[in-house]
Structure prediction request, 699 residues.
Amino acid sequence: MDSDLAKSLRSVTISPLEGEEEEEEVHIEEVEEDEEEDEEDSVQLGFVEKPKNPRLLLSHLFPNKAGGLPAWLDPVNLPPDNSRLCGFCGDPLQFLLQIYASIDGKESTFHRTLYVFMCPSMACLLRDQHEQWRHKEGSPSRSVKVFRCQLARSNPYYSSEPPKLDGTDRPLCTGVPLCCWCGTWKGGKLCGSCKKTRYCSEKHQAMHWKSGHKSECYKLIASDSTIVNNGNGVQDLTVFKNGLNNATWPEYEIVIEEESGFEWEKSEGNSSSTGTSAIVTKYNKTDEALQSVMDQFEADADKKSWASFEERISRAPEQVLRYCRDATAKPLWPLCSGRPSKTEIPPCRYCKGPLCYEFQIMPQLLYYFGVKNDSNSLDWGTIAVFTCLASCESSISYKEEFAWVQIYPATSIRPGRLTM
Amino acid sequence: MAERGGFGRGFGGRGDGEGGRGGRGRGGGRGDRRGGRRGNKSEEEKWVPVTKLGRLVKSGNITSLEQIYLHSLPVKEHQIVDALTKDLKDEVMKITPVQKQTRAGQRTRFKAFVVVGDGNGHVGLGVKCAKEVATAIRGAIILAKLSVIPVRRGYWGNKIGLPHTVPCKVTGKCGSVTVRMVPAPRGAGIVAARVPKKVLQFAGIEDVFTSSRGSTKILGNFVKATFDCLMKTYGFLTPDFWMETRFSNSPYQQYTDLLSKQATKAILPPTEEIPPVEV
Prediction:
């Protein structure tokens, strides 16, 4: 018994009261989310610019563009009927942007373009929010769709040499005729009377009829000319460029820059630079009272993520797209709520492999598109696109990928009192 | 052999973005913003709004902060407040270092506390923690601008000159602290403790008597109670507000095309025959 006691006595040591001392000197925080300690990935930013020459945005020059008409990579096998409609209102989707993002190393992904389409109605986007959370039941109906198309270097549509960009480039074949109203989708249906104008859906036929085709239809029956809009847009498509119909958003070219090329702004605060040394207190003094003020006014999680979001985009406030295909890359979320976890991202629907984040679309694009600001106009926080990690091949030319939309939480808009 | 994919300028792959863009000089123009005095004007012009409210402000549809307060719209971008107020001054009240214990020693960050105000009825408070002092101050200024509230001022007696004090006795409460603000005659000055006095100065109140109760040692509650008190100045129903209110549409609904087109069409045209469609 004595030996046991001796042993236990030996194991007892006197430790200095370190914990208390430190608390007196310095305020030790609870562990916080280390948002600022993340290493920054090398992100490529996209900016919109008015195209110098609209002909540079045709598909045989492999453009990156936003708004206007899509430059289909594969001009023949366009997306089928059911995937080109909004899942809620049934209207054909409108072209948002496309980027040319090939992957090195694989032959089948020498040419690879991602297309994003969206329904311009905010009501559909709000319903889409529910759908993107419940992806597990088969293929849900969405109002935001992303298509991926890839081709090998030698393919029947384009030459194997890089385009010379001197005006002499031509695609190797003409594509399928497109809808006369939107210029986006395949024009599979013909107008019953003149049998010359093509449409992708009845809704577009109705809109074209009301806004001018009614008077021109009989003229077309008589004449021999054909209105041909082909998949690669070699013909002149001026009817869409002047934007008289609301089927397309204004056209821009997307220009790529590296984010690291932008310096941090040096703030020119009024008194901050001179006064800081005086105000910074020494290590062994904390104002307990002021500490409580800080705790009261410190922002909550949503505001904090918003603040770091703003800080990151303030380096280049005009960015509309952030691209980073690293395995560890994470999108820059404006809000804390509404982020997908690993389980909420579905597997690739063709090869069942995992998806990885590729790029995200920023809300500045809405400003450049001139989207109106009423209650039913589009507004999003960010759209993050997740694509198949292996960029799988399949017989379908335009494969659907997964888009996650984070929108700002709806505010209750009540009529206010008019005070003097 | 790993072949570099793609023709032309595409995303992905390192370095091909730079080479292609050099000609347009865009990178040079953008990156070249170090140091160099920039007027506030150019910063505002460079601002690309991210929220719907921001787009409305940038396009000039909203002209004053009061329209935003009227409909209780959340302000997410500090440039909105910048664009709608002039002479917004900021002051750093305090910067404390806070430390976190890690295996490799202590990690120090700085917490900055900033009060922002234009001295004319708008005041805001912001707190931010960051690794560098400058970053913390910048972040705190932004947060302060986002929390700007309107303050109503009135007279103590004769309505000569501009309002200088609180319009009536108001009281605000937070935790156990209640702060009561009482109108004071001109020349009385702000009779309050050090930190709330600063806040009241930024709000533009020249004279006020305050009285507080509760554990004012807890400065957080004390300052929040003063803030609450200032918010209530506009909530107090005085005889000027007895007139019936006319409710107005929120800015989101004010600028729709629908409202402008309402007057033109009353009768719908008969539905027209659209020729059938064949595949």
User: Anything to note?
Assistant: Confidence is low (pLDDT under 50) at residues 14-41, 257-266 of chain B. The CA atoms of residues 136 and 189 of chain B lie 32 Å apart. DSSP finds eleven helices and nine strands in chain B. The first strand of chain B starts at residue 89 and ends at 102.
